[in-house]
Each structure stands twice: as structure tokens, then as C-alpha cells.
Amino acid sequence: MRIMISAGGTGGGVYPALAVVNALRTLRPDDLTLTFVGARGDMAFDLIDPAQFDGTYQLLAGPLHGVSRIKQVISGIKILGGIGQALALVMRVRPQVLFLTGGWVGFPVAAACWLLRRPIVIFVPDIEPGLALRLLGRTFARVIAATVQETAAFFPGKRVIATGYPLRPQMIGVDRDAAIQSFGLDPARRILLVFGGSRGSRGINMLFSTIAPDLLADGAQIIHISGKLDWEQVQAQHATLSEAQRANYLIFPYMPDIERAFASANLVISRAGAATLAEYPEHGLPAIL
Predict the structure, then answer these.
(1) Closest CA to 145 of 113, 97, 197
(2) Which of 150, 166, 182 is the endpoint of a domain?
(3) pTM, whole model, 2 decimals?
């Protein structure tokens, strides 16, 4: 079976696709061909393991919402070019189905698969879909999978199946003691995880860079995953702390095995996202969102 996977934009769009890839590899180990399609330069290619796929491809695409008029025009031109690229790719790879979980790259590849009569399945992680998934689902999808049934209200006339949120295998059954030891932290003291999602949160990053000394003085240990956009500023603020403070305040721009942090923490302060809201309960992790 040949399946094309398209995802991007944020970790919330990519992680469910990776969970489905793992499940497909387990269910059909011998007769499965998986290809991944993402936008050129998208962060999705920092999250996926190319070894999981039989081919990875980058197409032109760009956002049409939440950007300036000039960027909308540029994105429109990119999407038109991306449709041409996607048509050539689909004709060459000949997928039997497209599975799409988000990102503006979905427009070119969905349009190409629709024009070439390939069925399209979309997964919507959030209760209320973003603009891209809403347009893709209403226009191109044959079937829409969703975390909860309430999402069906946004896709009138479409077949919507509530599947729950797919978790990656590495999120399940993480040993807390081993996770804490991997960070070199003290299991007898409280551990606070600060996390702004795959792209980071400037407000959270700046706030915790300021109040970290007070939290450390109160006995907390901190794991702070900043995202790449604010990494230099977070590093600079971290460097002003004493050596003893830095030993209990660990900073990372990104953490591919973030399940270690989830298993270690007593509390997380983060942005609210579909992926995190599905993953925190697996670890019994209280959260302030």
C-alpha cells in the first residue's frame, strides 16, 4: 500500500502524523510505502526521521492567513507553483491515499491528489480546526478524522470520525526515575517544566528568564524549553545566573525526546495545544496553560 503523508507548520500538526506512521509500520510491516511531503524550509523536517519514510519531499507553499497582503500574494504564487510540483510528484509516486494533518503545504498536495482522483483523509487535532484544515476538509477530504466528535460541526455534510488523539509510542510508559536521572536533577525536589510548544512562546520565555532566580531560591528545579526563536535571549539571561543556579535551571532550544521532561516534571507551565493536552494526561502531569 502506498500512502503519502503531509504535515507541517507546528509540532501539533506533525506529531499526530508521526504517531500514525508508527502505527502503520506496525500494522503493515511488509507491504507499505510511505512518503512525506512538507513545505520547503518548514520545521517539520527537524521533527521527522527520514529513515521512517521511503522518500521525503519539499514543495513550495506559504500561509494565507495572519500575514500581510504582500505575503499573501507571495504565498499564493508559491501555492500555485507547489500545485505544479505536487502534480508531478503524485504522478511519479502514485499514492493510493493522502493523509494530511495540517500546515499550508496541504493546499498544493491536496489539490494535486484531488485532481488526480486520489482519496484524501484529514486528521484535525483541535476541537475547532484552523483555517487551513477547515478549507482543506470542506473542499478536498473524503474522510475527516478528529480528536472529538464535536469537530463535526465545522464540516457540515462531511464524514467525520472521532478517533481520539494518536500518541507516539515513546510517550507511553516512560520511567520517571530514569528520566530525572538523565537530567542530573534531584528527585527529592520539585521540578517545574516551562514549555512554549514547538515554536516557543516569547511571553513565557521572557517571564521565566526574569523570575527564575526567585523560583530557584524557593527550592524549585526548572527545565525550560524555549524554542529556537528566543534561544539567544534565553541563553544570555541564563548566563547571568550563578553556577549553582544554572545547575538547577536547565535550558534547551528544543528537545526531540521531550517525553523525558514530561515524565520528570511535577508541574508544567505552557501554551495550550492539541499535542500537549493529549500528552500531559499520559504522564499524569498537572499543567497551568
Answers:
(1) 97
(2) 166
(3) 0.86
